[in-house]
Write a sequence for this structure.
């Protein structure tokens, strides 16, 4: 069976990590080799860049500089982890990818499409997702989940989690608009439901697109 590259996108607390874990478990039950990864991050160098980005220490450099940093992390992630995994035949499930740059630095941050196109060409090339699941829910619901998690863990919110709800809602609309422009790649899933219901929808899409086709 061909290796597949699946990305999960959406706002804070949409349940991307949770759904990746559940999908990975279901694929492994079928003896499909799976790598779970995330952006920014996934390799040692990209995780180091992640710490810088999420700490907020380079926020003052502006959205273009941040876009460069996200792209630098992506170069390493794609070259050292994603592309080799797909070449081995592993499926790759990735928590955020280039659509997050389009939304956070682009549509909500004001970085122009020409710069984003160039960065995408350099960092991603032809290593594009076969499927992108956009987990959609009201920003307030996602932020509420993140706040509960922070209360439980005692962690501090990161550079993006402290931003106001209107900005989060604009990003939500930007993800929906990307999905509408790329219907062959993107599927929007209603994530404002219990975990198991969301997982069932995610599974139905993956099964229909990739597993039944291969049977
Ligand atoms: N960013 C960017 O600006 N540009 C880029 O190019 C890229 C990223 C790639 C990465 O932070 C930040 O970088 C991100 C965008 C920016 N902004 N922020 N913040 P991150 O990786 O730390 O954050 P995140 O991607 O938003 O992850 P998250 O907040 O952990 O959300 P999630 O993975 O979607 O959710 P989760 O961890 O699965 O679930 C969150 C909580 O909700 C948790 O307690 C769950 O148990 C609970 N949960 C999950 N599903 C449900 C359901 N269905 N019902 C109720 N509760 C649920």
């Amino acid at each position: 069976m061909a290796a597949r590259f699946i990305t999960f996108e959406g706002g804070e607390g949409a349940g991307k990590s949770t759904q990746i874990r559940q999908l990975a478990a279901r694929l492994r039950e079928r003896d499909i080799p799976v790598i779970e990864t995330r952006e920014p991050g996934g390799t040692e160098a990209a995780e180091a860049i992640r710490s810088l980005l999420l700490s907020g220490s380079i926020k003052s450099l502006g959205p273009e500089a941040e876009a460069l940093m996200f792209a630098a992390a992506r170069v390493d992630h794609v070259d050292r982890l994603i592309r080799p995994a797909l070449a081995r035949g592993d499926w790759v499930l990735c928590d955020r990818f280039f659509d997050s740059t389009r939304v956070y630095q682009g549509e909500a941050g004001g970085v122009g499409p020409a710069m984003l196109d160039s960065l995408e060409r350099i960092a991603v090339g032809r290593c594009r997702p076969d499927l992108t699941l956009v987990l959609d829910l009201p920003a307030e619901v996602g932020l509420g989940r993140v706040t509960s998690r922070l209360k439980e863990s005692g962690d501090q919110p990161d550079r993006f989690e402290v931003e106001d709800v209107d900005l989060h809602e604009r990003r939500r609309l930007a993800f929906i608009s990307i999905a509408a422009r790329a219907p062959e790649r993107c599927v929007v899933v209603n994530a404002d439901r219990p975990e198991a219901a969301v997982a069932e929808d995610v599974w139905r899409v993956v099964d229909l697109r990739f597993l039944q086709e291969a049977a």
